[in-house]
Write a structure and sequence with these properties.
The protein has helices at residues 9-22, 29-36, 79-93, 108-116; strands at residues 2-6, 42-46, 49-59, 62-70, 98-104, 120-130, 137-141, 144-148, 151-160. The chain is α+β, with helices and mostly antiparallel strands and 161 residues long. The strands form two sheets. Strands 1-2-3-4-5-9-6 form a seven-stranded mixed beta sheet, with helices on both faces. A two-stranded antiparallel ribbon has the order 7-8. It is globular, with a radius of gyration of 17 Å.
Length: 161
């Protein structure tokens, strides 16, 4: 059984390891911890083990999903969906009207999940994320070869509550 709750200090380190294992460019531990312990962010536990989280922020009547990740061994088991549903419940309790998120163009499973939960595409950010490949090509300037990492666009999605 999966239990969703706000973070405690004990859960932050495990959630950060999940975060680092899934991201190329990670936040510092301090930034992650501050976001996790803001009394908005949620953690998913299964059999008392941290298996996922969602980092949230809120301004006025809007919430933003800053990060959401489920441990790779626990994916496709409905945990991400439960985290998002808990986000909706929490946002409604706080009298929020909208929830926003950004997602990589290439993250088809996440996009499908978000759409199935009522998020709509409202825009995009060009070259927002560092792409998965380390080097796309190199440039040669002033007798120096410089690797150029490709960038990936992000969709901006919105859910009206």
């Amino acid at each position: 059984m999966v239990v969703i709750s706000t973070f405690t200090e004990v859960e932050v380190a495990v959630a950060y390891r999940i975060f680092k294992s899934d991201r190329m460019n990670t936040w510092s531990y301090g930034i992650f911890e501050k976001s996790a312990l803001n009394n908005l962010s949620l953690v998913a536990k299964k059999n008392n083990n941290t298996v996922g989280y969602v980092l949230l922020s809120s301004v006025l009547d809007e919430s933003t999903i800053e990060e959401i990740t489920v441990d790779i061994d626990e994916r496709k088991k409905g945990i991400g969906r439960k985290l998002i549903q808990a986000t909706f419940t929490q946002a409604l309790r706080m009298q929020q009207q909208f929830i926003y998120l950004e997602v990589r163009f290439s993250n088809t499973p996440a996009i499908e999940l978000y759409r199935s939960m009522g998020f709509e595409l409202i825009g995009q950010r060009k070259n927002y994320y560092k792409a998965a490949r380390e080097v796309d090509h190199v440039t040669y300037t002033n007798n120096k070869i410089t690797p150029v990492a490709p960038r990936e666009n992000a969709y901006i999605m919105k859910k009206v509550l």
